[in-house]
Design a protein that fits this description.
single chain; alpha+beta; six-stranded antiparallel β-sheet; two-stranded antiparallel sheet; globular; disordered N terminus
């Protein structure tokens, strides 16, 4: 996981999350073999929750979007996103464990990374040193470069 050298904060390389909702009420329920524990954030493509994968006894992140939130084309894009991410294996890119649909909700089960989201770190950046910012940018670039090379080979 991406982090600032010498700090305990791991930073997931994901975009800021915003959506109009539609998956509220999932906390405490099971979705795709994962017990939903708490809300993490919202994005254009869904709501993200911290969850426990029941069979693996492991903390995961579950990104959920209601099927009613968009048309079939959007749902297919969501599934393509999950399948593309699942092909990537890099320390700076979250790992995808599962994708599916249940209870009227499409979901992606992925690696959970403890820490502050990158956007929040940048907003609170008053104490971020230039060398720490450079390290973060370098780590993001390594992950993106690997993703581009991998996806170019596959498609």
């Amino acid at each position: 996981p991406l982090g600032v050298p010498g700090s305990k904060a791991a930073l997931p390389v994901v975009a800021s999350l915003r959506t109009d909702g539609g998956t509220e009420g999932l906390i405490g329920k099971e979705l795709g073999g994962c017990k939903i524990l708490e809300f993490i954030g919202r994005g254009a493509m869904g709501t993200v929750y911290r969850a426990r994968h029941v069979a693996l006894d492991k903390l995961v992140a579950v990104k959920a979007v209601p099927r009613s939130a968009g048309n079939q084309q959007m749902i297919m894009r969501y599934i393509r996103e999950a399948r593309s991410l699942a092909k990537l294996e890099h320390k700076n890119i979250v790992h995808v464990y599962n994708v599916g649909s249940a209870e009227g909700v499409c979901f992606i089960v992925m690696q959970y990374i403890q820490g502050r989201p990158l956007g929040r770190l940048m907003r609170d950046a008053t104490g971020v040193l230039a060398r720490d910012a450079l390290h973060i940018v370098r780590e993001i670039a390594h992950g993106l470069a690997d993703a581009i090379l991998t996806l170019e080979r596959l498609f």
